[in-house]
C-alpha cells in the first residue's frame, strides 16, 4: 500500500504549482529551469511551443532533474497552459500599460501559499529569453511580478528567475504551513475567460463597446475583474446578469 501525501504538506502544496515557459528558444534554459524547479520541490513544467524539445542539451543541463523533463507538458497556447489554475502570475522586467500592479515574489508568496493550501492550482509564467511575455500573454494572467535587481545591472537569465521565485515560495512555505487557508471556491482560468468573452459580446450588443473604437476598454475591464479575485459563484452571478441584460423579456410590458 502506497503512503498518501498528507493534506497541505509542503510536497502536496508544491504539487499545485506549475512553471510555464512560453516559446523558449534555447533548450538549455529548459534543462536549467528543470534543475531550479526540482531544487525547490516543484515538478510540473509546462512548455508553450518550445523551439527544441526534447533535447540532449536540456537533459544535460537538468543535472539529474530528468523526471521534471520527462513529465513536462507541451502545449500550443497560453490558454492551454493556464487551464485549471486560479492564480496566474506573469513575471516581467518592465512596467506595462494597463497591466496589473507589480509585486515582488516575496510579496506574492503568502497569497500563493494560501491559494495552494486551499486546494487550487497556480501558474508561474515566464516569457522568451529575449523579449519576455507579450502584452496579450500578460493579460491572460491575474497577477504580475518582478524580481528586484541592481538597477545598473538587472540581468537575470530564465532559470535564475525561476529559481528566485521558487525559493521565495519554498522558504515561506517552510516557515509556516500551520495557518488555515481561506475557504474559497475561486473561479478557474477557464471560467474567467468564458466570462470575459460573454462580457465583450454583451457590451457590444447593448452598444456600450464600440467595435470601431480603440480597444482599450476590455483590457481595463479585465484588470478590474481579475483584481477582484472572483469566486466561482460570483462569476455565475455576473454571467446571469449579462444574460438578463440582453434578454427581451427582462422588463414588463407597459399597460395597454
UniProtKB/TrEMBL annotation:
Entry-linked Gene3D superfamilies: 1.10.8.590, 3.40.1280.10
Entry keyword set: Cytoplasm, Methyltransferase, S-adenosyl-L-methionine, Transferase, tRNA processing
GO MF term list: RNA binding; tRNA (cytidine(32)/uridine(32)-2'-O)-methyltransferase activity
Enzyme class: transferase
CC per GO annotation: cytosol
Family of the protein in this entry: Belongs to the class IV-like SAM-binding methyltransferase superfamily. RNA methyltransferase TrmH family.
Subunit record text: Homodimer.
Name of protein: tRNA (cytidine/uridine-2'-O-)-methyltransferase TrmJ
Source organism (scientific name): Iodobacter fluviatilis
